[in-house]
Amino acid sequence: MIGAESERAFTVLRRLYRPLYLIETPIVQTGLETAELIKYAANAFLAVKITFINQMADLCEKAGANVHDVARGMGLDGRIGRKFLHAGPGYGGSCFPKDTLALARTAQELGAPATIVETTIAANEARKEAMADRVIAAMGGSVAGRTIAVLGLTFKPETDDMRDAPSLVVVPKLAAAGATIRAYDPQPGHARQLMPAATHFAGSALDAVEGADALVLLTEWNEFRALAPERLRAAMAGNTVLDLRNAWDPQAFREAGFQYLSIGRP
Question: Record-annotated residues binding substrate (predicted)?
């Protein structure tokens, strides 16, 4: 997307992006206002899509349905597509939170409120709070004096980016409720500065779950997918697992002796 006010600017930018054009990447020329709205609207639409499937996951839990199958069925419709239909603890990162807020504020100031985006922002923030409440409920209504292992702190795998990560809401809320937090993330640099001071940073996933009463998966790093449930069960004091990314096989974890809870799956 090239937003500019003069033909000279368009010419310079077309030359700059010419290598992309040579491999048939579409280039769209617009005015500045249109280019900005394209960027905000695209990211806001994806944020809406994520929030929608999260709410469908909640409905699935009440109705006895499976959100994985719901998402797959929706995604087979070419008008919808399968991407960004993964239920979880809410979106974070550098783009979706910033761009949804910017679009909502711009729309308000111009007198054309984007209420669906405003609702998405509020629902996503509430989602993160609700994830901490799920952990507390799974522990019988209180985590005071309990040890909670948290795997994954960044907003998504394969990055050290902590911007608007669900962990920034979930972990402090659990700590404030009296839990002892043992956390592990493959790239913990920024997380160390942002988690509650009493958080114990483990050197590995198995170290994090050692003696824990419950395990919470917050970010689905690939290395976590390979963890054997039997080894986790042997290391833990308790048997509660909350898979907030639906990354693990429910049957395998239940056969290993876990009380396994996930998102939108019976």
Answer: 39, 84-88, 92, 156
133 lies in the same domain as 257:
yes
Statement to judge: residues 18 and 103 lie in one domain: yes
- Known active-site residue 60: no
Q: How far apart are CA 92 and CA 245, in angstroms?
A: 14
Shared domain for 157 and 197, answered yes or no, is yes
| pLDDT tens, residue order, the chain (266 aa) | 899 999 999 999 988 888 876 777 788 999 999 999 999 999 999 999 999 999 999 999 999 999 999 999 999 999 999 999 999 999 999 999 999 999 999 999 999 999 999 999 999 999 999 999 999 999 999 999 999 999 999 999 999 999 999 999 999 999 999 999 999 999 999 999 999 999 999 999 999 999 999 999 999 999 999 999 999 999 999 999 999 999 999 999 999 999 999 999 98
Contact call for residues 174 and 140 (beta carbons, < 8 A): no
Q: Are 240 and 217 contained in the same domain?
A: yes
Catalytic residue among 95, 148, 179, 215: 95
Tell whether 98 is in a known binding site: yes
Tell me if 266 is assigned to some domain.
no
Domain count, the chain: 2
- Residue 196 inside a domain? The answer is yes
Domain encompassing residue 175? 129-261
Integer Cα distance of 132 and 173 in angstroms: 7
200 is in an annotated binding site: no
* 92 is an annotated ligand-binding site residue: yes
d(CA 229, CA 240): 12
